[in-house]
Write a structure and sequence with these properties.
Number of domains: 1
Order of helices and strands: EHHEHEEEEEHEHEEEE
CATH superfamily: Endonuclease/exonuclease/phosphatase
CATH topology: Deoxyribonuclease I, Chain A
Number of helices: 5
Distance between the termini: 8 Å
Helix content: 10-25%
Structural class: alpha+beta
Radius of gyration: 17 Å
Length: 243
């Protein structure tokens, strides 16, 4: 049984209520101790999983004190394997990226730039394991529907030839959106998350914009929304029979 997690960690900023976007705005720009403390909490939480997909990780910008948060979380949570992807560089301020952590060996890595009217969105794809290889894809979509439609089409092209896939990330669209319905109906993957898997915003979850998809060939799976509040998103967890 594979224990899987997908989590938009908001670079450790820790927005826990609407007014924090204003009151904690300095955390968007500065490295402060509460952000490090929050990363420690995240590391302690994710250590209990086998494979972890993280979005909105700072890979070593000024606002993280030039600390690569991916390396920090990998060390603190005890994961032996990691793949990273930088999606957006804001000067010296921040290096936005996607991260995959794994307790099984990562044997191959691929990084893709997603199409869109605004740059800075990516798809990180890794293959893990030898005897029973599994592909894990981690992504963070744009906000607008036209870009999302192009990005879903790109994902389908990249992932459709692969037999065993877990796709996860922050898709910025709900199960009721036309673009997500079109992708779910037309691809070879099953959407594990449902409309009731509300993971945003963390203080009053009302939107399902974070999602997990798996290949139809997988065994039983169970998805839940995590109860920890270390970001403006809640995490998604899944137990999957990956044999």
């Amino acid at each position: 049984m594979l224990k899987f997690l997908s989590y938009n960690i908001q670079a450790g900023i820790g927005t826990l209520r609407p007014r924090d976007y204003l009151l904690r705005a300095h955390r968007q720009l500065l490295s402060v101790q509460p952000k490090t403390d929050n990363l420690d909490k995240i590391a302690n939480y994710i250590r209990h999983f086998d494979v972890v997909c993280l979005q909105e990780v700072d890979l070593g910008g000024f606002r993280s004190g030039y600390v690569n948060q991916a390396e920090y979380l990998k060390t603190r949570s005890g994961f032996p394997y990691m793949a990273t992807q930088m999606n957006r560089r804001l000067g010296r301020l921040s290096l936005h990226g996607n991260v995959i952590l794994s307790r099984r060996k990562i044997t191959h890595e691929k990084r893709f730039v997603l199409p869109g009217s605004v740059t800075g969105r990516g798809l990180l794809v890794v293959e893990i394991g030898h005897k029973f290889p599994l592909t894990v894809a981690n992504t963070h979509f744009s906000l607008g529907e036209p870009d999302q439609r192009r990005q879903f089409a790109f994902l389908k092209e990249v992932l459709e030839p692969i037999e065993k896939v877990i796709l996860a990330g922050d898709f910025n669209c709900t199960p009721g959106s036309a673009v997500l319905r079109e992708f779910d109906n037309g691809c070879h993957l099953d959407m594990v998350t449902e409309d009731y898997h509300h993971a945003f915003p963390s203080w009053k979850p009302s939107k399902a914009i974070d999602h997990i998809f798996v290949s139809k060939s997988f065994g039983p799976h169970q998805c839940e929304v995590g109860a920890v509040r270390y970001s403006d998103h809640l995490p998604l967890t899944m137990h999957l029979d990956d044999r």
